[in-house]
Design brief:
Order of helices and strands: HHHEEHHHHHHHHHHHHH
Largest sheet: 2 strands, antiparallel
Catalytic activity: Na(+)(in) + 2 H(+)(out) = Na(+)(out) + 2 H(+)(in)
Subcellular location: Cell inner membrane; Cell membrane
CATH class of one domain: Mainly Alpha
CATH architecture of one domain: Up-down Bundle
Shape: globular
Strand order of the largest sheet: 1-2
Strand content: under 5%
Number of strands: 2
Structural class: mainly alpha
Distance between the termini: 57 Å
Membrane topology: Multi-pass membrane protein
CATH topology of one domain: Na+/H+ antiporter like fold
Organism: Actinoallomurus oryzae
CATH superfamily of one domain: Na+/H+ antiporter like domain
Helix content: over 70%
InterPro entries: Na/H_antiporter_dom_sf, NhaA
């Protein structure tokens, strides 16, 4: 081997090792959550600085082909495109839980599932009640406080709850996953308009092909899988499904969830890990280091000067009360009543006060709440107020959860 070839091989090996180390760091829940927070802070500072016009020009800059309505602003690409990667991870995690995890046994899964449903219904009801007498589009934002941000909530729990029982993290993951699935269904049903049946048919057909390639058997399919790398087979198909979903009028993040749920989670002969695990290993760093921070950077830039009348707005109070109070009442109340009225029971390793802390973490509604804000309101003032309320509520919920669960972590540490 020549010296140049050896140097090239060494450089390639070093680059791969560096990429592996970076990927491992980015997969950390603490790191991914920190990137998300940092991007949101940068966006907020930038949008309220003398460089605010540059920020607005950046996120309103349109790129992409005109086919399939894909000549879009950068901000829309982040919300519709990059965020679909995050929702793929959510759908994939849910599939793994359904097949191998907590959701496999209904008796173990019932409390976090019911808690998630309570954490969706009560905040939506609180917002609707506070905006019942408000005219115009203000009342249409009832979906904003329903969703828990998995990345943020798990990151906060990882930072402050190092000594908390593992069962509590599992409870949060199951709750947040079901919570986000409810939000996805609401987006599909409530925030979809102008449905195009031909495009939707194309998206469904593409999804059926995706499922067949994942789960199908046969000599021809086996030869195709052996001859074509997985990324070369599924990436173009995923882009087609996403594009058809976008053209159909359904929010394209639904495509991400659907493909995540269609992943195969069991290994076959010759496989060391399942396609589901392999895809998550590859895409989680992209989601954590690119998709979520980019979405936060392009969506969290709320110009506070445009939030006049914030404290007098029923939109602001609906979001604040829904996320900070409604989440706790819905999550704790639904799970406590279920345990009292049925045979379901809380894991003996955790206490009900811990579920209050999980309810507070549920009030971190950052990613999906900001997305639903953009889908709910067309009036810039309403968007600004709602986004400001989401950011404030998420900060308050994080602080309260840190205080309570930090104390509980110290309690568990003393027990050991």
């Amino acid at each position: 081997m020549s010296a140049l070839a050896r140097l090239t091989a060494l450089a390639w090996s070093s680059a791969r090792a560096t990429a592996v180390r970076i990927g491992a760091v980015v997969r950390s829940e603490v790191v991914s959550g920190s990137l998300l927070i940092a991007a949101a802070v940068v966006a907020l500072v930038w949008a309220n600085s003398p460089l605010a016009p540059v920020y607005e020009r950046m996120r309103s800059y349109t790129i992409g082909p005109y086919a399939l309505h894909l000549h879009l602003p950068v901000q829309t690409w982040a919300a519709d495109g990059l965020l679909a990667v995050f929702f793929f991870i959510v759908g994939n995690e849910l599939k793994q839980e359904l097949v191998h995890g907590e959701l496999r046994d209904p008796r173990r899964a019932v409390l976090p599932i019911v808690a998630a449903l309570g954490g969706v219904a009560v905040p939506a009801g609180v917002f609707a009640a506070l905006n019942a007498r408000t005219g115009g589009e203000a009342g249409g934002g009832w979906g904003i406080p329903i969703a828990t941000d998995i990345a943020f909530a798990v990151a906060v729990l990882a930072v402050i709850g190092r000594h908390l029982p593992a069962a509590l993290r599992t409870f949060l993951l199951t709750l947040a996953t079901v919570d986000d699935m409810c939000a996805v269904i609401i987006i599909a049903v409530v925030y979809t308009s102008g449905l195009s049946l031909p495009a939707l048919t194309g998206a469904v057909a593409g999804s059926a092909l995706f499922a067949y390639l994942q789960h199908g058997r046969g000599r021809l399919l086996t030869r195709v899988r052996a001859a074509v790398p997985g990324w070369a087979l599924f990436t173009p198909l995923a882009l087609v499904i996403w594009g058809a979903t976008h053209a159909s009028g359904v929010h394209p993040t639904i495509a991400g969830v659907a493909m995540g749920l269609l992943m195969r989670t069991r290994t076959r002969a010759g496989e060391t890990i399942s396609p589901s695990e392999h895809a998550e290993h590859l895409l989680r760093p992209i989601s954590s280091a690119l998709a979520l921070p980019a979405f936060a950077l392009l969506s969290a830039g709320v110009a506070l000067s445009g939030a006049g009348g914030f404290w007098g707005s029923t939109i602001a109070w609906g979001v604040l009360a829904g996320l900070v109070c409604g989440k706790v009442v819905g999550i704790f109340g639904a799970s406590w009543l279920t345990a009292r009225l049925t045979s379901a029971h809380l894991n003996p390793g955790i206490g009900w006060i811990d579920i209050v802390g999980i309810g507070l973490l549920g009030g971190i509604g950052f990613t999906v709440s900001l997305l639903i804000t953009e889908l709910s309101y067309t009036t810039p003032a309403h968007q600004t107020i709602a986004k400001g309320a989401v950011l404030l509520a998420s900060a308050i919920a994080s602080l309260l959860a840190a205080l309570l669960l930090g104390a509980r972590s110290r309690h568990y540490r003393r027990q050991h």
